[in-house]
Amino acid sequence: MKIGVFGGSFDPPHVGHLAVAQDALESMGLDLMYFVPARLSPFKTDRPGTDPGIRSALLESALAGHPSMRVWRGELERPAPSFTVNTLEELRGAHPGAELFLFMGTDQWASFRDWKDPERIAGLATLCVIGRRGDADPGVDGFEARSVTTRRMDVSSTEVRARVAAGRSIRFLVPESVRRGIEQHQLYGEREVRSASPLT
């Protein structure tokens, strides 16, 4: 069994996340893609995120009806911050014999050496760098990674939050179920919006 691991804040999940995951699922021949919402990223401790339970529920709604994509809640059940190495060890225990593939953006790959126990991570999963045509070759930093080419979708969670805060429409940027959830929970209206990666 081939299982993909796609982590992030997903605050909120948007169509770019879904399209990238679908491209990765197909190009790598995966049986299953786990979306892994972080309780708190060690690289984003300066911005309070939306309640983890709400973010998880939004992800569940976005993936509804797609049997090959699921939410893994393991990081939400551990104390913050969230570390990828712990998640991969949990998944290895839950799926003995499965082949794990860890997906990250080019910005995350550039800082991979700063992650907790990168050598252990590389031993637990095949590293896969999601990029677009023309992006740098992922064979850098002393680690090997497979390059996964995806479509260009210039949408980010930062943009979605900013549009909500400004009272602008987010239709077609997020699944309709996510848009309804943002409205129901009255998210992002008062939050200071900061810059972030297009895949976070």
Oligomer: single chain
Q: Tell how many strands the DSSP assignment holds.
A: 6
**Contiguous uncertain segments of 5+ residues:** 191-200
Instruction: Determine the N-to-C terminus distance.
Output: 27 Å
Q: What is the helix tally?
A: 7
Measured as a percent range, the helix fraction is 25-40%
State Rg.
16 Å
- What is the average per-residue confidence, as pLDDT, rounded to a whole number? 87
Structural class by helix and strand composition? alpha/beta
Largest sheet: 6 strands, parallel
Q: Which series of helices and strands comes N to C?
A: EHEHEHEHHEEHH
Shape call:
globular
Beta-strand percentage? Answer: 15-25%
Question: Which secondary structure elements does this structure contain, and how are they paired or packed?
Answer:
Blueprint: E1 2-8, H1 15-27, E2 32-37, H2 52-63, E3 69-71, H3 84-94, E4 99-105, H4 106-110, H5 118-124, E5 126-131, E6 146-149, H6 157-165, H7 176-185
Parallel strand pairs: 1-2, 1-4, 2-3, 4-5, 5-6
Helix pairs in contact: 2-7, 3-5
